[in-house]
Amino acid sequence: MKTCMNCNIKIGGRTDTCPLCQNSLSGEATENNWPTPTRLKTQAFLYKLQLFVVLAVIVVGLSLDFLLNLNNGKHYSLIFSLWFIVFEWDLSSNIKKLFVPSRVVSISILHICILLLITGNFFDFFDIMAFMVVPILIGAALLANTALSMTDTSDNAMIYLLENILLIFIVYAVLKAKHIDTGLVWTICLMLGLVSLIAVIIFKGRKVSSEIQRRMNF
Ligand SMILES: [Zn+2]
After folding, report:
1. What's the average model confidence in pLDDT over 178-184?
2. From residue 197, how far is each of 22, 111, 162, 172 by CA, in Å?
3. Same domain for 215 and 163
4. Rounded Cα gap, residues 125 and 173, in angstroms
5. Are 28 and 85 members of one domain?
6. Owning domain of residue 14
7. What digits encode the pLDDT tens for the residues 185-213?
8. pLDDT of residue 212
9. Which end of the chain is less congested by CB atoms within 10 angstroms, N or C?
10. 16 CA from centroid of ligand 1 (Å)
11. Mean pLDDT of all residues in 40-48
């Protein structure tokens, strides 16, 4: 039997990590208590297959770009590789952890926004990304997180909503401090953030304060 020192429990089978706290286990592995379902094997195979295809595309793309220099010094393959790598990173982290809709929405949209800004900078349409596309995506994440916070009873959506609102406030404050025109879409984003904050405080007030206290204890 393997033991989790953290949770003080014994776990049968060959698993390396504690099912409760994800700590690594010590002790001898025993026979698995049940056979591995074939559906999981198929999923694992499909995951590996797509990972192989994506990595192969990245390698071929980078080789064509850097070794054959097809793009006359504009290394587009770096941008496409970056998109693929972040996609794989998000995919694997979402497979490993429990599926939490608010986390998936928040982290994916944040990553996409960062990639869009980098891509926009590379292809000379940074302003459209920074003042149109990114605030629309952040606003969409805000609406999704607000809806999830209002309906989700498992407490997970609230922290992502609060982070989302904080992000909008920070971006707005930085733009204002640097005397950059925030534009209409960021202003709408800020208004939505404020309305959403009022809504959660009124309807979920106790949860908001307990969530903030919980995170401040770190
Ligand atoms: Zn544990």
Report:
1. 90
2. 33, 23, 8, 16
3. yes
4. 23
5. no
6. 1-34
7. 999 999 999 999 999 888 888 877 877 78
8. 78
9. C
10. 11
11. 84
Single pTM value for the model: 0.71
Q: Are residues 79 and 145 in the same domain?
A: no
105 burial type by CB count under 10 A (0-12 exposed, 13-18 middle, 19+ buried): buried
Domain identity same for 86 and 30: no
> What's the CA-to-centroid distance between 52 and ligand 1, angstroms?
33
Residue 106, domain member (yes or no): no
Residues 141 and 204 in one domain: yes
Q: What is the mean pLDDT of residues 63-76?
A: 78
Spatial neighbors of 152 by CB under 8 A, at least 6 apart, are: 101, 102, 158
% of the chain at pLDDT higher than 70:
95
- Predicted pLDDT at 218: 57
107 inside domain: no
Determine the distance separating the centroid of ligand 1 and the alpha carbon of 33, expressed in angstroms: 19
Residue 127 shares a structural domain with residue 208: yes
Mark out the alpha helices in 10-129 (DSSP H runs). 38-66, 76-96, 101-122, 126-128
**Are 87 and 123 within one domain?**
no
| 151 and 210 share one domain | yes
> Separation of 9 CA from ligand 1 center, angstroms?
7
What does the DSSP assignment read for 165-178? HHHHHHHHHHHHHT
